[in-house]
Amino acid sequence: MEALRTPTATLPHGPAVSWTPSPQKKKIAAFCSALAIVGAVAIGLVAMTTDTAADTARTGAGGLSGVCYDSYQAVTSVDKHFAFIKTKFGAVRTYQTTVEGKVNLIDAAAKANLQIAAGVWIRGGVPFADDLKAAVDGAKRHPSNVLAVYVGNEDLVSGLGVGDVITKIQAARAAFQAAGLGNIPIGTVQTDGSWLSADPSLGANCDVVGVNIYPYFNPSVASDSIADLTKRYNAVVAKYGGKVHLTETGLPTDGGGRASFAAAQSYWTQYQSWAATNGGNCPFYFQFHDATNKPGDEGHFGLSADGATWKFAVAPTPTTAAPTPTPAPSTTPPATTTPAPTTGEATPAPANATVLGANSTAPRPTSNSSALESGSVIDVPEPVALPTLEAEADATPVPVTTPSEDNVQSISNASGESSDNVTLPVVTSLVCAIGVAAVALVVIRNRRKLEDDKDIDLFVDDDRNSADLYKRDSVAVL
């Protein structure tokens, strides 16, 4: 190595050499700092946009799609049914939680990795205390699977008073709070006509407002009218706000009346688009499979005929925007305005409950699973005629007007924001990519400059008495 040392100069005694940033380097540092600030601001804007897009439960922005489950075969088939449901849906809604004391539907949903809107039955057949205890116990074991607990179903059109329903809701809330589960929403499910005519105290006692709406039972519109669903859903939202969730809608494929396979398929197709931006964070379609224990059209609302195959293409809810709603002829009348989707049998029933009358639209309890599996049929009355709707049908049609911007856009805000939600992240990504590329280019160029500057290196001897200057190209790399 001594042969390679070529001293060219000796410097006078002095302090160690230090390096001072040049003006060019200062500019580079300032440029990099500016890029970092711009990136931080962009990330903050993206985060704010994401939070805003999911701020309310009144739209279907939750991305979760559910189906109602009639538990009359649950004792023997719930695991098989829920596993099949999971192939197309993310959640189930039930009308009771315990089935004959043998099955806890919250446990079954968790086993299938499904979310659940659990029901607690309040009109006989299944003791309220037993069903409530099953709901609390199941929620304790699987709190993250429970979307909400609905106390009762269509009880007001079945003869119960608002005070009766409120008492049960308060009892359920107290039980969940005592179990440390006060964060689980508690509410009830009624028809849209019942909600619009009910005393406001009912909604005030609910964390969630479940509403059942069936254009099929409205003779003044087409059986597959998604516009009728939209108009009536909007009316309930206008009264109760973001706590409203669609808990039932559907159309039978067979069984007489206005039932039609083509109409049912059309309604399901339209519903998938509608539910992408409406109906709450997880709207529910009625129902999973046909109820073979029920006569007429009431037994054919299922998306599956046998619980193992789909009647027609059943795809996960798409992300397309909902169609523009058609305004309602007038304010929805009280309870009779919304024909009960299930006049005694269409909605599933807790085991062992009794038939409660022609006006009852809630699920009917069954005698026992073995009797149902053998083909026995519950004798139920025909649906009650709806004089109010017939009167509307005969009356002079009300001119159709474009719904107000407040009444429509507030329901479909997720659709209106979709453009911004996509554009801002794309622009931000491009800016960040350009910034990173620019920084990389500057660093590379600066490194090359430093290499050039260091062609002559300065070395100070151990005694710091002199400094030798060496030419880089004269040093061997070993």
UniProtKB/TrEMBL annotation:
Keywords: Carbohydrate metabolism, Cell membrane, Cell wall biogenesis/degradation, Glycoprotein, Hydrolase, Membrane, Polysaccharide degradation, Transmembrane, Transmembrane helix
Class of this enzyme: hydrolase
A GO MF term: glucan endo-1,3-beta-D-glucosidase activity
Principal location class: membrane
Residue ranges of the region described as Disordered: 317-378, 394-420
GO biological process, one term: cell wall organization
Signal peptide (UniProt feature, chain positions): none
EC code: 3.2.1.39
UniProt superkingdom: Eukaryota
One GO CC term on file: plasma membrane
Task performed by this protein: Glucanases play a role in cell expansion during growth, in cell-cell fusion during mating, and in spore release during sporulation. This enzyme may be involved in beta-glucan degradation. Active on laminarin and lichenan.
Name recorded for this polypeptide: glucan endo-1,3-beta-D-glucosidase
